[in-house]
UniProtKB/TrEMBL annotation:
<keyword id="KW-0808">Transferase</keyword>
<keyword id="KW-0418">Kinase</keyword>
<keyword id="KW-0547">Nucleotide-binding</keyword>
<dbReference type="GO" id="GO:0004674">
    <property type="term" value="F:protein serine/threonine kinase activity"/>
</dbReference>
<keyword id="KW-0812">Transmembrane</keyword>
<keyword id="KW-0732">Signal</keyword>
<dbReference type="GO" id="GO:0005886">
    <property type="term" value="C:plasma membrane"/>
</dbReference>
<keyword id="KW-0677">Repeat</keyword>
<dbReference type="InterPro" id="IPR011009">
    <property type="entry name" value="Kinase-like_dom_sf"/>
</dbReference>
<keyword id="KW-0067">ATP-binding</keyword>
<dbReference type="InterPro" id="IPR000719">
    <property type="entry name" value="Prot_kinase_dom"/>
</dbReference>
<dbReference type="GO" id="GO:0005524">
    <property type="term" value="F:ATP binding"/>
</dbReference>
<keyword id="KW-0597">Phosphoprotein</keyword>
<keyword id="KW-1003">Cell membrane</keyword>
<dbReference type="InterPro" id="IPR008271">
    <property type="entry name" value="Ser/Thr_kinase_AS"/>
</dbReference>
<keyword id="KW-0325">Glycoprotein</keyword>
<protein>
    <recommendedName>
        <fullName>non-specific serine/threonine protein kinase</fullName>
        <ecNumber>2.7.11.1</ecNumber>
    </recommendedName>
</protein>
Length: 170
C-alpha cells in the first residue's frame, strides 16, 4: 500500500508527533478498521478471527482508507449453531494451543488457555484505539510491573484527560 501502515503514521521514524493525525483522521481510520472486522466476523463467506490486530497490520491505501491486513495467524471460525460457542476458532486449527497475537494486544483470556475468538479481536481493537488516542504503544517502557495502557488511561480519567490525549491531537 502506498501510504504504508498505520504504525508508520502513528510513530514516524524522526520521533516527532504522528504525521497527519487529527481527530477526524483517527475516527475515519477507526471506522475503516471496524468495518473490516465486522465483515471478517459476521459477513465473510468463511468467518475469520484475525488474532493479531495492531497498527502494523493495518495498511493505508492512496485515499488513506484503512485495510486490515496480515492474516498469517488468523483462524477460521467454525459456526457451531449455538450461542455458547459461536465466534470461537476451530480448535482443530494447526495453531491451536499456541498464544495468538502480539504482546500488548493479546486478550487476557488467551493467556489463560482461552481459544481465539471474535471477542479477542475486539479487545485488540480497543487497545489499538487507546494507542491511537494516547500516542503510546501498549509495550511502552512506561507500562511495567503490571501497569497496562488501559490501566494507565483509567488512572488519568476523568481528572486529567489532557495527559491521556496525544500531544499531536491537542
Amino acid at each position: 500500500m502506498t501510504n504504508g501502515s498505520l504504525e508508520k503514521h502513528l510513530y514516524p521514524r524522526d520521533g516527532g508527533p504522528g504525521r497527519g493525525m487529527d481527530v477526524a483522521w483517527l475516527v475515519g481510520i477507526a471506522g475503516d478498521i471496524v468495518e473490516g472486522l465486522t465483515y471478517l466476523h459476521h459477513y465473510a463467506p468463511v468467518r475469520v478471527v484475525h488474532c493479531d490486530l495492531k497498527p502494523s497490520n493495518v495498511l493505508l491505501d492512496d485515499d488513506m482508507t484503512a485495510i486490515v491486513a496480515d492474516f498469517g495467524i488468523a483462524q477460521l471460525v467454525k459456526d457451531m449453531g449455538d450461542n455458547d460457542n459461536a465466534g470461537f476458532a476451530d480448535p482443530c486449527n494447526s495453531t491451536a494451543g499456541l498464544l495468538q497475537g502480539s504482546v500488548g494486544y493479546i486478550a487476557p483470556e488467551y493467556g489463560l488457555g482461552g481459544h481465539p475468538s471474535t471477542e479477542g479481536d475486539v479487545y485488540s481493537f480497543g487497545v489499538m484505539l487507546l494507542e491511537m488516542i494516547t500516542g503510546k504503544r501498549p509495550t511502552d517502557v512506561l507500562f511495567q510491573e503490571g501497569l497496562t495502557l488501559h490501566g494507565w488511561v483509567r488512572r488519568h480519567h476523568p481528572h486529567d484527560v489532557t495527559a491521556i490525549i496525544a500531544q499531536s491531537l491537542l
